[in-house]
Amino acid sequence: MARWLPSTAGLARLCHRLNRLKPLEESTMETSLRRCLSTLDLTLLGVGGMVGSGLYVLTGTVAKEMAGPAVLVSFGVAAVASLLAALCYAEFGARVPRTGSAYLFTYVSMGELWAFLIGWNVLLEYLIGGAAVARAWSGYLDAIFSHRLRNFTEVHVGVWQVPFLAHYPDFLAAGILLVASAFVSCGARVSSWLNHTFSAISLVVILFIIVLGFILARPHNWSAEEGGFAPFGFSGIMAGTATCFYAFVGFDVIAASSEEARNPQRAVPLAIAISLGLAAGAYILVSTVLTLMVPWHSLDPDSALADAFYRRGYSWAGFIVAAGSICAMNTVLLSNLFSLPRIVYAMAADGLFFQVFAQVHPRTQVPVVGILVFGVLMALLALLLDLEALVQFLSIGTLLAYTFVASSIIVLRFQKAPPSSSPGLASPGPMTKEYNSFSDHIQLVDSEAPEPGQLRPALRPYLSFLGACGPGVAVAWALGILVASAITLGCVLVFGKSTLHLPYWAYTLLLLLSVTVFLLSLLVLGAHQQQRQEDTFQIPFVPLLPALSILLNICLMLKLSYLTWLRFSIWLLIGLVVYFGYGIRHSKENQREWPGLTDSRYVVFPDGSLDESVQAVQPPSQATAQEPDSVEQPPCP
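RESULT FIELD:
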């Protein structure tokens, strides 16, 4: 027993360290970065991050190999899935106007380890995404010159036959990344000006493609003689959706840039909504005219739009499309190089990544070390690697981040609000604290005004077994069960009874059980009191919309190949080595004078004895210095 107690205390302390949270009320408007971006700047950053290689390359690939003319449905479903995630990002971006995007949102709600893993995956997403776009940019430019650049490189450098490596080194792709890194390191205003220029040209070209494409449209190309509208059926549409989702991943650049926005509470939600609407409209309309201009089965996946105009006898239009594609891909490159160093900066500023990346240039006020280091690394990937097999890898990290952000919205919505009236904008003064203490006292006396996370008074007679739980406990368990049931339901919907090797009755029973548990979890969440804030944007219909986002993201992740999951697992293991080797010891939360305990406002995995075990192993100075008003009632057993 004597040996068992210390090990239990050590395990409790480790669990506390892994699940400790970044205090939400510390996210203030004060920053070492420069707040200079307007709503228009953020909107064009979002458009530039989404409308790029996906429009000019992905559209033709999905139409020919996965969905046929129903590619426009795939883009529509992917846009809805992205919209659900975008609403969650919009609430967080307005409420926590700090750089870090999904990483920060997870840190303030789910825990440190989960936040690091999300940031680690987003980092890889930007690295591979930027390198893939650079190679697509190089390929389009090379096509304009009849592939002379590729032929020159193959003749004078040689051709490689190594798995995962490109057939030849792409010096042009690496060079454009280095040039873009140099421009981005000059400051946010320079990056924004370049993005404005390229985005304006790209939008004009897209409008040209849509207008001329509808003029040249042939409805016969959707007829049964050409294979019909959906030649690959529903399965093909969903497979296309999982790939088309990659086209919309760029909107999180807006949330990542919220620390440099002038008025993030208004600008971030508005910019996310406008940019996602513009991108979705562009993808759906362009895929429509593309499959109406030429038969879907004859498309050239590498340059579908330009080739379609060439084949209809409009070679001059093909050159305009190629020029527009290069401008659009430039905006995506700028978006990736703009976002990636800021995610790394946020992680380094919190102590979870190497401190050199937290340095900000005193004149340009950007994390110049991160821009240059990761710009060079991205250029090396574009120079050497064959990135075609890694395109799906981009989606899995993003889908996981979206799932955690949706879960974080549910967690925070059922937590007690921070003391200040505008969370994340100001620290409460003495009079505010006194007023909040009085308000808390009134809430304790008045049972008709429950705290967030408590059961609604009108439902207490019917759900009395939940009324005895502490604030947030039943919500935490309901959220965990909801995610588990969403995974089960996703497997049933995606794989079907034939793949799962289940008889019809067992398949039907599993489907009904998973749907029932999912709906019951939603009802339990909805029966509890939520936060209501008038001064910041809040996503409507919580927990319904975040729960649908979780379910849809899980279904899309299950559609990805097993090799994608294998690569993803390897990257996660590398991230765990980095976190336990460096991050857990250098975390700023670990170095606080009074680490504090994870109180009931932030409970995700509640355990009645965990707080007591952690407090028991604290040094006496820390245990006595704990603020008395931060210790709340323990959850129900």
